[in-house]
Design goal:
mainly alpha
Length: about 200
Amino acid sequence: MYKHFFKRVFDFIAALIGLTLLSPIFIVVVIGLYFVNQGKPFFFQARPGKGGNIFRIVKFKTMNDKIDSEGNLLSDAERLTSIGAFVRKTSLDEIPQLINVLKGDMSLIGPRPLLPQYLPLYNAEQQRRHEVKPGITGWAQVNGRNAISWKKKFELDVYYVDNLSFVLDIKIFFLTIKKVFVREGVNQAGQATTEPFRGNN
């Protein structure tokens, strides 16, 4: 009953309340990123949701679009702005995804939506992460986030799919608040962003 009905109700109400309470912070971050990113405070990207269906995720744009002399984008570390780095460390870049939750593309809690190009790289067990809606935070995020291996991350995602419950969601919610304050596992050691998934070989 929780999985098929109440979870969506709670998601909608919590996302609406969250956007309302966080609106002052939302506005300040939008203004800051508007100036450092040449009028582009938001970042839109295609992501696979439940069943692998593609939707457009919205996040704050934490990296600029600077290119080298040959027209290629600079590395992530070079494009990460000072404001963007702060927004990432404090997890404020996740706030716009509350809009995706209101629309029904995402849940507050579930496996993080990854890139579409990863879809053919998953094995059958890893594909199971798409049996539920993706979330803003999840079991993998409170157990290491980007600091753990892809293999471990997918194992934690599938664990969540098999054990989804109100109690587990509440546990993840409060652990997420703790992680935000201690700022653990935002990136892999020595990386501005996590390494891309290259398959299981």
